[in-house]
Design goal:
By secondary structure, the chain is an alpha/beta fold. The protein folds into two domains: 19-272, Aspartate Aminotransferase, domain 2 (3-Layer(aba) Sandwich); 275-399, Aspartate Aminotransferase, domain 1 (Alpha-Beta Complex), CATH 3.90.1150.10. The chain is built from twelve helices and 17 strands. The strands form four sheets. It has an eight-stranded mixed sheet. Residues 294-300 have low confidence and may be disordered.
Length: 402
């Protein structure tokens, strides 16, 4: 292994046929350089086809199934953060409302709550998927009703690192209290729960096409809606809420959130390699698991590789994540790997521990704090080779002593 070769966490990977360049060139040739155009419409349709298709089975023999009866509709926007903001607006979240947020996540899933003038109520994780704990979710809802006399306005659940949340339990709680769910599937394009694609479980959902995601549009995201009317409303808000007049008429505040035709062209090209990317991430994950000799949750290994809890879960393993048996300085450990040419990162610092949210109510059980103190993310993207994985595992084993 040449240490001058840097192994990135998840680096953007273009299609071998140059499909991205073809769609971009098409836009230039037809002068569709303006923000909207044919690539945006086509990219949205291709995403809809993907998300509206279930799978017959999970695991190695996963294959496409039937088109879902509960169709979803996609609006391409400038970022996943913008999509979450739009989702909150569509659900009527405003000043003095409360929104339940997953604590163990990136700040982009909770920051838009502040954009709306609302307050975050953070909920900790459960141990299987590391996503929002259904038990604590219901506890938080009951507490807020008792203390404020009002239900939270929405719930934001994240399919973190590509792992689906416990959607049967979360959906049941959402329906019980009649609180809509926003599914943040930024990491989870190509992940499935019981054969159904992530991004289709929430009342509204979001995707990310940042440069380090399963596919990229350089920067961008998508809003996933359950009906066409909601999609049209989202597009209206994302294009400065311009009323249908020749002059510029505005009756509500809008935003400049639409995806550009050039970015969507990249996305169309990326759709041609999406399945290849999913398969590669899963292959890399399985190789890590094999090399760390960690096949189940009850062994005595010093290193645990996060895996699907059972056959209901089919993660795309956007990033392979590991936990060390004993607490370590994950920041220092990642810096040590960095010197060996390996990009690794600590797991997310929970939002309820972030200084900016120190006054936000939080319902915790210690799970996310344990994950933060014990875990790191490993290189998993399409550029990561089998030899890279072997080198990474070797360096980790050399560096860790228990």
């Amino acid at each position: 292994m040449n240490i001058n070769h840097r192994i990135h966490l998840c680096l953007a990977h273009m299609s071998p046929t140059g499909a991205e360049q073809r769609y971009i060139q098409e836009a230039f040739n037809t002068n569709w350089i303006a923000p909207l155009g044919p690539n945006v419409d086509a990219f949205e349709k291709e995403l809809e086809r993907f998300l509206n298709t279930s799978v017959i089975s999970t695991g190695a023999d996963r294959r496409s199934g039937e088109i879902s009866d509960n169709k979803v509709y996609v609006a391409a926007v400038s970022s996943c953060t913008a999509a979450i903001h739009l989702a909150l607006l569509l659900l009527g979240v405003g000043k003095d409302d409360e929104v339940i947020c997953q604590s163990f996540s990136f700040c982009a899933s909770s920051n838009p709550v502040t954009y709306c003038g609302a307050t975050q109520i953070f909920v900790d994780s459960e141990e299987d998927t590391w996503n929002m704990s259904p038990k604590l979710l219901e506890e938080a809802i009951k507490d807020r009703i008792a203390k404020t006399g009002r239900k939270p306005k929405a719930i934001i659940v994240v399919d973190l690192y590509g792992m689906p949340a416990k959607w049967d339990e979360i959906t049941a709680i959402s329906k019980k209290y009649d609180i809509p769910v926003i599914e943040d599937a930024a990491n989870a394009l190509g992940s499935y729960y019981k054969g159904k694609p992530c991004g289709t479980f929430g009342d509204i959902a979001t995707l990310s096409f940042n440069g380090n995601k399963m596919i990229t549009t350089s920067g961008g995201g998508a809003l996933i809606c359950k009906d066409e009317a909601t999609k049209k409303r989202a597009i209206f808000l994302a294009t400065q809420a311009k009323e249908p007049f020749l002059h510029y008429e505005h009756e509500t505040i809008g935003y400049n959130y639409r995806m550009s035709n050039i970015s969507a062209g990249i996305g169309r090209g990326q759709m041609t390699v999406l399945e290849d990317h999913i398969n590669h991430h899963k292959h890399v994950h399985n190789l890590y698991r094999e090399l760390f000799l960690n096949t189940n949750r009850t062994n005595n290994s010093n290193i645990f590789v996060q895996d699907n809890p059972n056959a209901d879960f089919d993660s795309n393993f956007w990033l392979t994540t590991i936990l060390f048996k004993q607490e370590i300085d994950t920041e220092a450990f990642c810096l040590k790997l960095d010197k060996a040419g390996i990009e690794a990162r600590p797991l997310w610092k929970p939002m309820h521990l972030q200084p900016v949210y120190k006054h936000a109510p939080a319902f915790t059980n210690g799970v996310s704090e344990h994950l933060f103190r014990h875990g790191i993310c490993l290189p998993s993207g399409p550029w990561v080779t089998d030899d890279d994985v072997k080198y990474i595992v070797q360096k980790i084993k050399e560096a860790i002593v228990f």
